[in-house]
Design brief:
Residues 9-164 form the AraC effector-binding domain. By secondary structure, this protein is of the alpha+beta class. Helices cover 25% and strands 37% of the residues. It has a single domain (9-163), classed as Multidrug-efflux Transporter 1 Regulator Bmrr, Chain A (Alpha-Beta Barrel). It starts with a helix and ends with a strand.
Length: 164
């Protein structure tokens, strides 16, 4: 597997379908692991706890959504932590339930590694997208595709960037 490990991960350009999710939203003062981490971490604890308390099963991999905040401080980031749920779920106490819009065109890359490596992976990925001429928006997502029993350092995370 030596040569394969040295090659750059492939970027796939594709549509991302909408999803029915239960979610919480918060804001970070700006992008970067030191600002986003303290906000997103607790949300990833709260959402599944509220789903468990309501007896609502998760219907797919959880995700984080990150984009420039429409209002407030310049540079602020809107963060949404969402867990897919069945289409017939309309209410979960403490959570917003609804549709996470699909993306008509997105660049998707699989990152292999723990959460502590995501910041550096994002920086390299965004630099690569710019160098290769992709026209990106401020909307990005992380989809945590590995099951909970997989050790963190072996996680696979989809890094998704909306394209214009």
């Amino acid at each position: 597997m030596g040569d394969q490990e040295m090659s750059e991960p492939q970027i796939e350009v594709r549509a991302v379908p909408e999803q029915h999710v239960a979610r919480l939203e918060a804001f970070a003062p700006r992008m970067g692991p030191e600002f986003v981490g303290p906000v997103v971490g607790p949300l990833f604890g709260q959402v599944p706890a509220l789903l468990d308390a309501a007896g609502v099963p998760v219907a797919g991999p959880p995700l984080g959504v990150y984009e420039a905040a429409a209002e407030g401080e310049p540079g602020a980031v809107r963060i949404v932590v969402a867990f897919p749920v069945a289409a017939d779920v309309t209410e979960v106490p403490g959570l917003d339930v609804g549709t996470l819009p699909g993306l008509e065109r997105a660049a998707v890359l699989v990152h292999h590694g723990g959460p502590d490596t995501l910041g550096a992976a994002w920086m390299a990925y965004l630099d690569r997208l710019a160098a290769e001429g992709y026209d990106t928006t401020s909307h990005s997502r992380e989809v945590y595709v590995s099951p909970p029993d997989v050790p963190e350092h072996e996680w696979d995370t989809l890094l998704v960037v909306q394209l214009r």
